[in-house]
């Protein structure tokens, strides 16, 4: 196998390989692949490789490390393997392991002390899909430690949801762009890290506010919920796999309520409002991605759709 550095000129072949191996469940679009695997500033190019056999693309590995200068709580000591995909004709021949080891060396040399499988910024998966049975054995073989199970949930049109008007002094509304900084400050204080990071990128990409529901009490933000659809300024994680649906797909999440206001049902109100606003846009199929709160969302008719297992590996001293 000839190994070459990550190169955009192979994007069509990379997408074709992905769809050959994973496309029935996770159909890849070139636009999404470019967004997540080339345009992300956290891509570790020196740790991402393409495998060729007589000029035929047979596999690839993508690694990332936090490299942005945004003032958010993301660690430079954490690295990610975004994906490692090998053509079926070349599996069980050491191809994947060879590419993975190259990526690991680059990550360790960059200063990373822990590697996660998936869950990267602009990720595809929060872990390894449970349907990729061979990959779980491969993770163990390469000394990755098994973690928790994460879920993507789906409501395929079930239930009737009205606007949550039963909360006294609390209003659920789409964000007015004039209050953008108020939301950013709220996230920085209450939910620093990935959720804040995703909001900053949303506004940097000219987001208008239609993707954020805010819960306000006495005109002060006490909670938020993100919603996505095909008109969002970039392809968001809960609508990645929209080609699987004949009709429009919407997404809900993340969402959060400030600690001082929890226990009052405002989280329920945010979910209800999110479904209400998406249904008002004509969207029936709605996905909540990367969650372990299966029982919480069940009351809104969401059921497990896709399952993942997290894996990680710490650097040996």
From TrEMBL:
Keyword entries, A-Z: Acyltransferase, Transferase
Alphabetized InterPro entries for the sequence: Acyl_CoA_acyltransferase (IPR016181), Bact_Acetyltransf (IPR050832), GNAT_dom (IPR000182)
UniProt domain N-acetyltransferase: residue ranges: 1-144, 170-316
Domain of life of the source: Bacteria
Pfam families linked: Acetyltransf_1
Gene3D superfamilies xrefs: 3.40.630.30
GO MF, one example: acyltransferase activity, transferring groups other than amino-acyl groups
PANTHER family membership: AMINOALKYLPHOSPHONATE N-ACETYLTRANSFERASE-RELATED, AMINOALKYLPHOSPHONATE N-ACETYLTRANSFERASE-RELATED-RELATED
Protein's recorded name: Acetyltransferase
Organism ancestry: Bacteria, Bacillati, Bacillota, Bacilli, Bacillales
């Amino acid at each position: 196998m000839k190994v070459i550095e990550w190169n955009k000129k192979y994007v069509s072949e990379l997408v074709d390989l992905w769809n050959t191996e994973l496309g029935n469940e996770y159909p890849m679009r070139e636009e999404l692949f470019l967004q997540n695997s080339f345009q992300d500033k956290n891509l570790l190019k020196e740790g991402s490789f393409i495998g060729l056999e007589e000029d035929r693309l047979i596999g690839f590995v993508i690694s990332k490390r936090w490299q942005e200068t945004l003032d958010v709580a993301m660690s430079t000591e954490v690295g990610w393997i975004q994906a490692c995909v090998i053509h079926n004709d070349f599996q069980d021949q050491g191809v994947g392991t060879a590419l993975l080891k190259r990526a690991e060396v680059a990550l360790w040399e960059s200063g990373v002390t822990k590697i996660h499988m998936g869950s990267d910024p602009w990720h595809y998966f929060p872990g390894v899909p449970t349907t990729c049975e061979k990959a779980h054995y491969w993770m163990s073989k390469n000394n990755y430690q098994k973690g928790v199970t994460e879920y993507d949930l789906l409501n395929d049109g079930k239930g009737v949801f009205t606007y949550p008007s039963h909360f006294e002094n609390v209003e659920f509304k789409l964000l007015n762009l004039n209050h953008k900084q108020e939301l950013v400050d709220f996230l920085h204080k209450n939910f620093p890290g990935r959720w804040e990071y995703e909001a900053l990128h949303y506004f940097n990409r000219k987001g208008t506010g239609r993707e954020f529901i805010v819960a306000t009490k006495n005109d002060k933000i006490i909670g938020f919920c993100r919603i996505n659809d095909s008109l969002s300024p970039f392809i968001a994680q809960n609508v990645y796999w929209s080609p699987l649906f004949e009709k429009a797909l919407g997404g809900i999440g993340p969402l959060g309520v400030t600690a001082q206001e929890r226990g009052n049902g405002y989280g329920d109100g945010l979910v209800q409002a999110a479904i209400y606003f998406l249904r008002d846009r004509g969207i029936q199929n709605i996905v909540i991605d990367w969650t372990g709160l299966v029982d919480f969302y069940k009351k809104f008719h969401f059921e497990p759709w896709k399952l993942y297992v997290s894996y990680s590996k710490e650097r040996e001293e």
